[in-house]
Amino acid sequence: MYLGEVIGTVVCERKDPGLSGMRLLLVQPLDHRREKAGSPEVAVDTRSSRLGDLVYLVGSREAALACTPTFVPVDSAIVGLVDAVDA
Amino acid sequence: MILARVLGSVTATDKHPAFNARKLLVVQPLDERGGETGKSFLAVDNLTSAGPGDTVLVMREGNGVRQLLHDKTLPIRSLIVGVVDAVEA
């Protein structure tokens, strides 16, 4: 899992049916100092994240497990809205 | 697994239910000499009670996490599975 900041939204009209109804956000992965950790990625939002929010995400197969249903074509999901990082 | 140092914790009120009552820690990957390498990331600690400054063993593989925590549905990928006493390299 890793931290990230929501930097935008993504809209797809044509997509796999497994992605229908899912909110897609553009997220910049961050380290604990809020410095960039790699390139921006598109993540499914399982909370109600807003632009600028500090969130945490899970990647790979576990991203799909965070969704309902769980057999969906995603590899990055926002699973928490961060209140504080004490590090 | 990798070696990492615990830097601190992350708190979140609004989160996936799988993370309820689980400690989420910031960990910094380490090289064989204990130097920092790569970017920090987050890992759940349910087994070891690791704290800031501890060197830990982190597993980053979701199937292993689900087996250890006895829940086939957990969207958790990184888990602290040991507190390291010594590394000889």
Folded structure, characterized:
The complex is a heterodimer of chains A (87) and B (89). Chain A has 87 residues and is mostly beta strands. Helices cover 6% and strands 41% of the residues of chain A. Chain A has a single domain (2-81), classed as EutN/Ccml (OB fold (Dihydrolipoamide Acetyltransferase, E2P)). In chain A, strands 1-2-3-5-4 form a five-stranded mixed β-barrel. The longest helix of chain A is centred in the last third of the chain and has 5 residues, at 61-65. With 89 residues, chain B is mainly β. Chain B has one domain (2-12, 19-83): OB fold (Dihydrolipoamide Acetyltransferase, E2P), CATH 2.40.50. Chain B has one helix and five strands, in the order ββββαβ. Chain B has one helix at residues 62-68; strands at residues 2-11, 23-29, 41-45, 55-60, 78-83. Chain B has a five-stranded antiparallel beta sheet. Chain B is globular, with a radius of gyration of 13 Å. Strand 6 (84-86) of chain A pairs antiparallel with strand 1 (2-11) of chain B, so a sheet runs across the interface.
CATH topology of chain A: OB fold (Dihydrolipoamide Acetyltransferase, E2P)
CA(first)-CA(last) distance of chain A: 16 Å
Beta-strand percentage range of chain B: 35-45%
Q: Superfamily at the CATH H level of chain B?
A: EutN/Ccml
Low-confidence segments of chain B, given as residue ranges, are none
What would you report as the Rg of chain A, rounded to the nearest angstrom?
12 Å
Count of structural domains of chain B: 1
**Radius of gyration of chain B, whole Å:** 13 Å
Number of strands of chain B: 5
Q: What percent of the residues of chain A sit in helical stretches (DSSP H or I)?
A: under 10%
